Amino acid sequence: QPLHTLRNAEKELLPGYHQFEWQPALKNVSSSWDVGIIDGLSGWTSSVDDVPADTIARRFRYDVALVSALKDLEEDIIEGLRERGLDDSTCTSGFTVVIKESCDGMGDVSEKHGSGPAVPEKAVRFSFTIMSISIRADGEEDAVTIFQEQKPNSELSCRPLCLMFVDESDHETLTAILGPVVAERKAMLESRLILSVGGLLRSFRFLFRGTGYDEKMVREMEGLEASGSTYVCTLCDSTRAEASHNMVLHSITRSHGENLERYEIWRTNPFSESADELRDRVKGVSAKPFMETQPTLDAL
Q1: Per the domain annotation, does 135 fall within a domain?
Q2: Same domain membership, residue 146 and residue 89
Q3: pLDDT tens, position by position, 200-214
Q4: What percent of the chain has pLDDT over 90?
Q5: Same domain as 47, residue 149
Q6: Confidence of residue 240 (pLDDT cuts 50, 70, 90)
Q7: Long-range contacts of range 80-83, CB-CB < 8 Å, 24 or more positions apart?
């Protein structure tokens, strides 16, 4: 055998190594990275000061982590097809995977006898859970669920993607580290994963739901003012005074798209208003850009 085929055969035996491809190929995702654990800043090192960049975060490439998670569920997927009476050999396309994303601060992780590199003493973990896998068979109207996570809030079904030394209130560093993660997720939405499951190549689409963020993180991701703001709600424009007078009639009036438009208004100030007028116009969208524009309800 030529050397490269032996190399590839060897790789197949490594834990966590799986061959897969994206159709079309992912945009904005470096193909040259090794498939293991990567530096969390992955090419953004120039944007974070004060801290040795190579110590600040470690993560998996998002698509590699998803592949690994799906391969872990290989038996469940095949079992699910069998239970639903679906012919395994015809079910090669049309799989949809729903992913719940979670991100939260882990509090103080400072060293007792600090001799390591100077890093922030707080940590944040970004993780995901495969909530369900469904398939729409050819010619069928409705999708059939073949896998549902029984314990979606358990530590056991939740897979870490990125661990970072950063305070969750440090918007700039958080953006620098999660920026590439968000870019990878965006690329995956426009592509299909081709992966061998049960000995046959199958194609998967992914849906991402950011429902594992608590309110503080939602405000952080959405570029809203923090919890002390006059505008108390992440879903509407109520002020504290209005909310205290009206405890009943509330409607969801704020969407991610609108927040993005308001941030643009803040940035460009098209009506040449004073800071106070401008702030009143954008109603609690803060002066910092934000990452999340997913239409999902938050954890509350």
Answers
A1: yes
A2: yes
A3: 999 999 999 888 888
A4: 26
A5: yes
A6: confident
A7: 80/133, 80/145, 80/146, 80/147, 81/135, 81/146, 83/146
